[in-house]
Amino acid sequence: GAVVSQHPSWVICKSGTSVKIECRSLDFQATTMFWYRQFPKQSLMLMATSNEGSKATYEQGVEKDKFLINHASLTLSTLTVTSAHPEDSSFYICSASDRRTRAQRHGELFFGEGSRLTVL
Amino acid sequence: AQSVTQLDSHVSVSEGTPVLLRCNYSSSYSPSLFWYVQHPNKGLQLLLKYTSAATLVKGINGFEAEFKKSETSFHLTKPSAHMSDAAEYFCVVLFYGGATNKLIFGTGTLLAVQP
Question: What's the confidence (pLDDT) of residue B100?
Answer without folding.
Answer: 61
